Amino acid sequence: MPTVKEILNDTKKRLKEQGIDTYSLDSSLLVSEVTGLTKIQLVTHDRDEVTEEQINRLENLVKERLKNKPMQYILGHCEFMGLDFKVTENTLIPRGDTENIVEEVIATIENSGYNTVLDMCTGTGAIAISVAHYTKAKVTASDISSKALEVARENAKILNADVNFIESDLFENINETFDVLVSNPPYIESEVIPTLMEQVKDYEPMLALDGGKDGLDFYRNIINQAKNYINQNGCIVFEIGYNQGGQVKSLLENAGFVNINVKQDLAGLDRLVIGFKL
Fold it and tell me: Which residues, 6+ apart, have CB-to-CB distance to 48 below 8 Å?
């Protein structure tokens, strides 16, 4: 039977030939998945033989990656804010960029003494669960997708996070008010979606991507009603696309929010907007 080193090198070769930039990392993750070895053990146990069952399983996973299926969907989980989240094709894959919005919410809670948070369009529950994990706030999360909420509830259970989940089309089933309303809504322009990378447009749920003609549909709909659901002196926090800061800021200003700030990510691109209700 082949060794760990042999199947790792073969996997790297196949992914590289397919033009997958992350072929080395992906190969290590896939071989680790089927052998149960850590990244370090792939080196220290590289002469260990693998079983036929492991080879067959690896082959199935490699075929999925060669089709540009995202690694997170192949493995069924991903890391976010130091926590391990289950992901399925019914949920958007949590991105590292979204950690910016979580960190902003956590800092705002700590600085302002906020106690209640609503995460709208929660998907995997990554934002809500992270906020619940790292603060003492009472967290509610909503999504229109029942399948996404199944994943979010499972993540909360696994991570021992106390989050109240509500199936709701935006505010339809929301009956409380909150100190913080946070959302990473769909914000990609409809006509841009066909130009996205295959692993995004072909696998991630369109429901979580399409923000309408100009990408702002969900911001408008949320902002138009948000003041009815935010407590006095509370705030609203959005993740945004790199080119949407000025537009979302204007929407918030027109709705009467104050002290509005557009903030950048580590790459210097506009990534979130925060505003306050007097």
Answer: 3, 4, 35, 37
